[in-house]
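step=encode ok
step=design start
structure_in=
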């Protein structure tokens, strides 16, 4: 997870420089290669529930009831928060199980960090396979609430948010996105925040000079589709900005155990079933 260690030394709202470049129009898009998209997503750690060998906890997908051929295989959860992944493990372990082997397996479960880019890559590599491991993403509850609050405040009638929310700061609803400078070279990037808290921090820096500045809520699925389908040089400067919890994990990984590298690739074979 070298990319996570590298970003741990450069990412951070505090100390970043807000640029006052205004890009007109709505979000541009460009067709990135699968590898380029993976590298951007590698900056974001996510957590899977695994056994000590790194095999993810999964459940078998049911066969289609109408007799039609449908993808089969298993599905596993992908958590945007280590805290929420660990909370689910505790729930599973609190349930009394009469099967000694199952009870022992549950005791060994752990939250294992994986780069989001590795999951994206595996999805791309196995998308045409019937028997494949699929991933059910578990957004942070607080971020879902924050996204829905912003959407409702903008006048949208939102009942639920089905994807992982991403927050982008704009100079105004009809203007472009706010770039920042990161790293020693002060390179210009356009952040896609995984946390509303970070987007608000940038918004507060911009508001005094651009009073109409706001936060736009998008979803990670739409962002990835845009990257895959369109062609615009601008999005080469887009970066995914991990949540505060994720950045703390990256800093810990980098400073306390620089040789440690969490799983580079989620296992793509049957694993412990729940």
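sequence_out=
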């Amino acid at each position: 997870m070298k990319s996570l260690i590298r970003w741990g030394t450069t990412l951070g709202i505090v100390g970043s420089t807000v640029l006052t470049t205004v890009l007109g129009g709505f979000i541009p898009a460009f067709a990135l290669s699968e590898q380029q998209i993976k590298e951007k997503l590698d900056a974001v750690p996510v957590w899977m529930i695994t056994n000590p060998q790194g095999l993810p906890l999964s459940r078998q997908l049911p066969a289609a009831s109408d007799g039609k051929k449908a993808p089969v295989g298993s599905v596993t959860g992908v958590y945007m928060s280590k805290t929420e992944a660990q909370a689910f493990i505790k729930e599973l372990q609190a349930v009394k199980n009469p099967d000694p082997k199952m009870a022992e397996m549950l005791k060994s479960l752990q939250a294992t960090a994986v780069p989001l880019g590795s999951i994206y890559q595996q999805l791309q590599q196995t998308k045409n396979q019937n028997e494949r491991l699929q991933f059910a993403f578990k957004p942070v509850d607080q971020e879902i609430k924050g996204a829905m609050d912003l959407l409702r405040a903008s006048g949208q009638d939102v009942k639920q948010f089905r994807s992982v929310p991403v927050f982008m700061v704009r100079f105004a609803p009809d203007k472009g996105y706010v770039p920042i400078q990161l790293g020693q070279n002060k390179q210009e990037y356009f952040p896609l925040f995984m946390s509303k808290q970070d987007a608000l921090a940038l918004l507060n820096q911009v508001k005094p000079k651009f009073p109409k500045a706001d936060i736009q809520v998008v979803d990670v699925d739409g962002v990835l589709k845009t990257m895959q389908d369109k062609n615009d040089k601008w999005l080469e400067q887009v970066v995914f900005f991990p949540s505060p919890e994720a950045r703390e994990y990256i800093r810990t990984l980098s400073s306390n155990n620089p040789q440690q590298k969490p799983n580079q690739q989620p296992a793509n074979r049957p694993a412990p079933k729940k």
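step=design ok
step=annotate ok -> The radius of gyration is 20 Å.
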